[in-house]
Amino acid sequence: MSLAIVHSRAKVGVEAPVVTVEAHLANGLPALTLVGLPEAAVKESKDRVRSAILNAGFDFPARRITLNLAPADLPKDGGRFDVAIALGILAASGQLPAVALENVEFLGELALSGAIRPVQGVLPAALAARAAGRALVVPVANAEEACLASGLTVIAVEHLLQVVAHFAGRTVMEPYIASGLLQVSKPYPDLSDVQGQQSAKRALLVAAAGSHNLLFTGPPGTGKTLLASRLPGLLPPLDEQEALEVAAIQSVASHEPLSSWPQRPFRQPHHSASGPALVGGGSRPQPGEITLAHHGVLFLDELPEFDRKVLEVLREPMESGFIVIARARDRMRFPARFQLVAAMNPCPCGFLGEPTGRCRCTPEQIQRYRNKLSGPLLDRIDLHLTVARETTSLNPLAQSGDNTATAAASVALARGRQVQRQGCANAFLDLPGVRRHCQLTAVDNTWLENACERMTLSLRAAHRLLKVARTLADLEGAGSIERRHLAEALQYRPVSG
């Protein structure tokens, strides 16, 4: 047979569209033509494939070979199609039965010796192959990752000879069985490491319970970063769908095979990060920090030190939970349902308001420092808290009575109430959801309206305040929002104007 068809998967953002490798052998001078919008790494595959076939002991046909990667308008990059191309040539030349390849997809980069190397983005390809009802052949290093798509038949291979022997029926390889190495949970930092800071821990608990954004303001050394790093441990465990989404993003973004079953991600980009680094981009759009923090925490330390234009790009994904990156040739949508935690100093030197009087910043310097953050961005942060300096304790064994396990249990109960009532965390309630689930008595409604007028809060801030009050009620197990919940929620809002 001079025509063979083999299936593979491309990597486009966090998706894995199917690519059909068509190999055709015709009479004429020996040549190999590769078409289908291949980029540099794919064009070079014909040299890798030729050497791999010859070094594995097979014949490379001395005929005119045409390889088509369909669909033709989809750009292809990387070495992920090498195995599919090699099998297409072998099947078209009669060295392998083409019918055996019909319901299987192949991923892997070939070494010149015929060894098969791991590739990026295997998990999205595995999920897509499962949906298509096909088995998946992957490098051994990617097998555990592919097995996260439960119900998928995964065949792990190390060399081109193994693949050919299996599909030629000479040596049958059993489907790969996951060892569970990726599902070993790593311990989170414990909240008991933070000494004092009871009000900050309370705000952290509220943020975790309702998935609210949080801003810590305080002088250097008060534990703002330490507190923020404890938030992932307070959040409920990822469900299966969320875990697969997080793992798929890590699979696409990392150059190494997935090393562990993902927990809530905690991303901490440096304040020198550019806009594309934060939200994603490039000539071929790649995920940014907000996508890598999907279903987890994005921590921005020294918030005013970020470029203002960079921070402004966060406003839309903070509301929508995704980011759309448009280029002349591509338009990609990346998930970005992250929880923002930020930290900043009260002034350029960081010591404003301290009783020692160390601050020497002028009012103009302080105002210029704070003006680096726009009102609309601050309006989208539900909880604002000033973190004061605690009494110094140098005892390395000193721990507070609060711990992550106890706090996480309270958060889980509150989240459970929210999911049962409305199907999502309070922070993600839309306007109809706020009206339905954050109802107040007439007296409390009037009281809140007067308070918002005195504090000159926007309607967005008022709605977010109601969501925080709903979370406070859920932490107590209260069926409705009461005045004390509103009063505490107001304490977390800065006065506008």
UniProtKB/TrEMBL annotation:
What is the protein name given in its UniProt record? ATP-dependent protease
SUPFAM superfamilies recorded for this chain? P-loop containing nucleoside triphosphate hydrolases, Ribosomal protein S5 domain 2-like
The entry lists its GO molecular-function terms as: peptidase activity
Q: Does the keyword Acyltransferase apply?
A: no
Which stretches does the entry tag as region Disordered? 259-285
Offer one example of a GO biological process linked to this entry: proteolysis
> Has keyword ATP-binding?
yes
Tell me the protein family, please: Belongs to the Mg-chelatase subunits D/I family. ComM subfamily.
Organism equals Pseudomonas lundensis
User: Residue ranges of the MCM C-terminal AAA(+) ATPase domain?
Assistant: 286-387
Pfam families in the record, alphabetically?
ChlI, Mg_chelatase, Mg_chelatase_C
- Keywords noted in UniProt: ATP-binding, Hydrolase, Nucleotide-binding, Protease
